[in-house]
Design a protein that fits this description.
The complex is a heterotetramer, with two copies of chain A (about 425 residues) and two copies of chain B (about 325 residues). Chain A has about 425 residues and is of the alpha+beta class. Helices cover about 40% and strands about 15% of the residues of chain A. In chain A, β7 and β8 form a beta hairpin. Chain A starts with a strand and ends in a 22-residue tail after the last helix. The N terminus of chain A is likely disordered. Chain B is α+β, with helices and mostly antiparallel strands. In chain B, α3 runs antiparallel to α7 and α4 runs antiparallel to α6. The model of chain B has no long low-confidence stretch (mean pLDDT about 95). The chains are: A alpha+beta (about 425), B alpha+beta (about 325). At the A-B interface, α8, α9, α10, α11 and α12 of A face β8, α8, α9 and α10 of B.
Chain lengths: ~425, ~325, ~425, ~325
């Protein structure tokens, strides 16, 4: 896990709280069944020492995108980007062991590689899983070297929780796809070179069956990126408008009409990428943490102490749950949908602690510039992004507890006969 | 005890609601709007006795108005002037009260140990509660604007250096109690509108082919919010009634209202925002304005635990 | 409102907490549109004084059923039973004003009339609404005089929240109905002379359409009443078994096949009867009340004080809500489904306060015989009876907030093709 | 830190679970069952060192067992003897420990100022924590049975008049900490089974033509219960691990586990009962047994607020 150097970091389809960490290499780091355990034996302690030496010797030179690209290229050239990714496409082809050794060291540093997080965590892994050899050759190495920045284009104003209700159309024309529509909640789109775009290519079949995933060149004519101001007063995300954007036929990821399966792959990587970071680190910069609030609250009041204890209990309960998931993962037990429980708990802890923090500090906490003012305004983000709390509860109920499904009214109805948002 | 609105109060509510329907919380303080509000509707003078040019209404009347100004997130110093007015009723000052009733004077209520003052930038006069306790009218005070998360109305950091002060009298705890009731009334409005907004949205927003309000995950939360609203409304009516008709019961009723309604209001504003999904997180949507007003109001007189410990004391627990 | 003299009182389809009060005359007391406001003018204060004198002069003579019958007869003969019920059928035909004047006085007494509560609150009002003139003549006066005890027979083991899924069959045979099946959660059935019985007379139509309500003689051959031991260790309710019980044709309430409408009428009266009593009185005997716990808890601990304050806040919030509903009702504003909000809040307050009470008192509270041990074991009752908390939330959502309905899978399917509990 | 079960612990869990699958919580204390449990499975001696005839297992092993005995609502004095054993480990007594390991002796842990003793009727010996603090073995004490809402196991009101006492040593706080961990492990089992019961029921019970588990009103509550279970399980594993491997961290971990798991367990048992609907309120159904065990366990060492104030102290808040 590496803490990304970006205040109020956001990624994926939505934002996360500051101090949140995530795996630099997305879910690859935990995918034992595919690339790992190749049998490389080496001195891990030595590997970690060398990584530390390298990181010490290469402090970030700036926090703009150009500096990030340059840093990422150096990181790649030093062998620390894509550690477990297949060597065939530009990864290092090493094992979990090295990945973990590097992560353990890197936790002490703040790497300026935020803009690459969507590519590394979601888009890259999806291409590795589903891309054509040409697509992998074209993109993976450049992605790992920071030459290309990627974003993910799924959510729409009318399709949030219900991603498959999306309305962005891609129509065939002369062997190309012509895309029209709007996406939203897109992180790093303003810097992105490529996007993984989910489109509707057949509205006459039920909604999950008429989708196709495309690789879109974000510099193509007709692509407009507009920052989306959120309730913090800042723009952590973008809206993207597609106006007759032409996409070559060889940019389809997976099969035409199989976009939903491709999206599920991407979202699985997103969720792993989130849950792997949940509660694991970054607490030291969090103004709503128990440690931070214990310093500023009036602990002479026993009721305040009790409130702080509640925060401590919830924080530790979640942190230990995450550690257990991490230990299970290391031991080869895949967390699956249980990661959604961790994400739900973190979302609730985040709103709870921001609320409590303001109560403890009082009106001064709400003055612009106070860390808690920002923390409060950002606190709903995790409960909305990457699946709302309600969606998480559905996932836990359906996939962990195997409860009977909700009756679905939208399963077998052609999309163009379905009730959707306008 | 009376927990119902009179016919006159219902008319008042309708008039205020209609007036406020054109107010946008993002427009900031507009003296022209306040001019009409205090002129046509006479809201600034609502609780000011006839002799000072007011309407001589009661706290119950005022709370009807504050529920509506809260629901509309009326920007500007209305609540601030109201809180100052309620303090002035304890130590009446003809000049100030008539000025407020006429809409000429904006005032703000301040406590000696709290430099952040709601409405401090717009205030012509500060009504200051000192530790003595004295109620002091302060003019010519220093101030600088303080931006908070609540963009609909400002605060100021004030300084009394070089200010002109005039002692108005010795206020009772009623100043504080009435402030709690007034803020609870505003919070009730914020709660009501937070619920109304998400109820409306839940009837039109579709997910997975169904209106989201048809999912129990949403419906049951909204039902709980409605339960909170019913209780909050009852507590505010009760507190206002005690202020008018049973002053001995006011301290308990006021702390009770503030302790319950403040929490319920923020919870409702938060849940409303969350249930809106991503759109609720955008700047353009009003959900965050309610969320931020709710939190600002909740801590305005101090955090909830203070109201609760006051309740404990009033109930004789120790 | 009159507090009924029965510890751990239970009624209707389910139980309520001790100290709960209810209207002696069910929802009639609030039904302005029909019988009230007939224009009788009299000195209400004098009416109240006379009632008090009568109640003072007639202390209960025992707490068995015979004594209750005798007391009820006296009450009726004195003119205090069925105050607002139509004179035509044996009521007093007076107005709300007298009813309220009597209720205000009676609140100071504990009337031993618990066994009549189902009849007075639910069965009687249903008969007045839907019964034939013969049925009213036969039953109403006897019911008001305490000559007959009534129970209500709707719920079944497989049909709780979903009453209309009931499986008790009534088949026509020689101009009579032959009933087979089982009912449960029936209060006072062990004393009952009559029951309002909901049966399925046509399983080939959708479930709400094949029901019929019958008046059943509880002394008829084939009726077996068995006490149902609940989690308190006592039997507040009964199970009733019907084994080829024959019911004459003139005992149908309303129309054949219209039983659901009749049941809705009954349940409406039940709900009104409950909500009218909610939180209004009886707190003095409640061991989980703020007043009671303030005396026994360690209030030197500020955290305990804060917990008690929470209890106080919730109790007062609900009590004031109920008072507002009562004032609105007096003013002619019918509470409708908002009463379900009050019932839900009371159910939650009841479980909350019992839980808290035990925490405050400690292990001694759980010793058999301690009032809190019983209160804790009884605390779930209100959240289950008269509609679960989930049903209450549905009602508030659907009927108060007018939210869109859940899609119904059971609306148009013939009952015998429907998924039901076995 | 290790939060996972070893292969041996998984085998132990399977063995205990299998053994307990035939135990009915309503059957009361059955010495024959205990004989087999302590014989075949050696559970009474699990954490007793080899030298006293035990298996020399750790608290992590014990907690695996207690989760299962909790889930099965094992009747009788198993927890009581376990708590006494944990205390004896602090001031070892060969005779008592070997007797317990062999299954010959039932013991119960008692505190000087608390006359209600879990397992007091079945106990051959009381292990008493006095204020000195001393750990004292007490025999020949007076006792009378106390029925509580938890019918699966009894308490006694004990009196020390005329009892034989023998001071075993000076115990540390670890006695209390280990008791907290042991009870938290049992609570975890009660929580797990409460959830499992309602999950099963929600898959077969039909209302309005659908399985009740398909309603979000039910599903989301069960999801929240699952979240609580995951956290509770993590906290219990962690506390047990500290007892075995990081004793300095035990006090905090134990208070943390008890504070969280006790609450979560009762909430789960209550929600499980409520979501069962009417059937959950019947005597015949087991839901109330879990509900009552959960509440009994929660206050056994004192109400939750005590664990929380202990946490506050351990965290240096003041």
């Amino acid at each position: 896990m590496i803490t990304i150097g970006h205040r109020g970091a956001s990624y994926g389809r939505f934002s996360i709280k500051p101090g949140q960490s995530r795996s630099l290499y997305g879910s690859r780091a935990r995918d034992y069944s595919k690339w790992a355990l190749i049998g490389v034996t080496m001195d891990l302690a030595e590997y970690g020492r060398r990584a530390r030496a390298w990181l010490d010797a290469h402090p970030p030179t700036g926090d703009d995108v150009a500096a990030a690209r340059s840093y990422m290229a150096d990181l790649y050239d030093a062998g620390y980007s894509g550690i477990t990714w297949p060597a065939e496409w530009g990864g290092q082809g090493l094992t979990q062991a090295e990945e973990r050794a590097f992560a353990a060291v890197a936790r002490d540093y703040t790497l300026p590689i935020y803009v690459f997080s969507i590519g590394l965590g979601m888009c890259g892994p999806t291409l590795v899983d589903l891309g054509t050899p040409e697509q992998k050759t074209r993109h993976i190495r450049r992605l790992l070297r920071g030459e290309d920045i990627w974003c993910q284009l799924f959510s729409e104003p009318g399709a949030g929780s219900d991603v498959a209700a999306l309305q962005t159309r891609a129509a065939e024309d002369n062997g190309e796809w012509v895309v029209n529509g709007q996406k939203v909640w897109t992180s790093v789109a303003q810097h992105a070179d490529y996007g993984l775009l989910l489109t509707r290519t057949d509205p006459s079949v039920p909604k999950h069956r008429g989708l196709t995933m495309l690789i879109v060149d974000m510099h193509a004519p007709g692509v407009t990126v507009r920052p989306l101001k959120d309730m913090t007063g800042r723009a952590h995300f973008n809206e993207i408008f597609f106006d007759d954007v032409r996409v070559p036929a060889d940019c389809v990821v997976g099969q035409v009409g199989e976009g939903w399966n491709a999206a599920v792959t991407t979202l699985l990587h997103e969720r792993l990428s989130i849950s792997s970071g949940v509660g694991m680190s970054g607490e030291k910069d969090n103004p709503t943490s128990f440690a931070a609030l214990s310093k500023v609250a009036d602990t002479s009041d026993p009721v305040v102490r009790d409130q702080l204890v509640e925060l401590y209990i919830r924080s530790r309960a979640l942190a230990l749950f995450n550690q257990r998931l991490a230990q299970e993962t290391k031991a080869g037990i895949f967390p699956g949908a249980r990661g959604s429980a961790a994400k739900l708990l973190l979302a609730e802890l985040t709103t709870f602690s921001a609320d409590l923090a303001v109560d403890l500090v009082g009106p001064e906490a709400l003055v612009e510039g106070h860390p808690l003012a920002n923390a409060l305004a950002l606190s709903p983000a995790l409960a909305l992004g990457g699946g709302t709390n309600e969606i998480m509860r559905n996932i836990v109920g359906d996939r962990v507890l195997n409860l009977p499904p909700e009756p679905r009214v939208d399963k077998n109805v052609p999309f163009n006969e379905l009730k959707v948002n306008s | 005890m009376n927990l119902l609105l009179s016919a006159e109060q219902q008319d008042l509510r309708a008039a205020v609601r209609s007036f406020l329907s054109n107010v946008n919380p993002r427009d900031g303080y507009d003296p022209a709007v306040y001019g009409r509000m205090n002129g046509e509707l006479g809201l600034a003078g609502l609780v000011i006795p006839d002799e000072y040019g007011g309407a001589g209404g009661g706290i119950s009347d005022l709370s009807v108005v504050l529920v509506e100004t809260g629901a509309a997130l009326l920007p500007g110093p209305f609540l601030a002037t109201t809180l100052a007015t309620l303090a002035l009723l304890e130590c009446p000052d003809k000049e100030l009260l008539s000025g407020i009733a006429e809409g000429r004077i904006n005032a703000a209520l301040a406590w000696e140990d709290r430099p952040l003052v709601l409405g401090g930038m717009e205030a012509d006069v500060l009504i200051l509660v000192t530790g003595e306790p004295s109620l002091v009218a302060v003019e010519g005070f220093g101030r600088e604007p303080v931006e908070t998360i609540d963009i609909t109305r400002g605060m100021a950091r004030v300084s009394l250096d070089g200010a002109t002060t005039r002692v108005l009298g010795r206020p009772s705890d009623r100043v504080h109690d009435l402030a709690m009731v007034a803020i609870a009334a505003e919070q009730l409005g914020v709660l009501r509108e937070s619920l109304a907004a998400i109820v409306s949205y839940a009837k039109v927003r579709v997910a997975f082919g169904r209106f989201i309000g048809s999912y129990q995950g949403v419906k049951h939360k909204l039902a709980d919010m409605h339960c909170a609203l019913e209780q909050a409304e009852s507590l505010v009516r009760h507190a206002a009634w005690t202020a008018d008709a049973a002053p001995d019961e006011l301290p308990l009723a006021a702390a009770l209202a503030q302790a319950y309604v403040g929490r319920a209001c923020f919870q409702a504003a938060k849940d409303s925002l969350l249930l809106h999904g991503g759109i609720g997180f955008t700047w353009e949507h009003d959900a965050h304005l309610y969320f931020k007003r709710a939190k600002s109001d909740e801590v305005l007189l101090g955090p909830p635990r203070l109201h609760r410990s006051r309740l404990a004391a009033l109930l004789g627990l120790s």
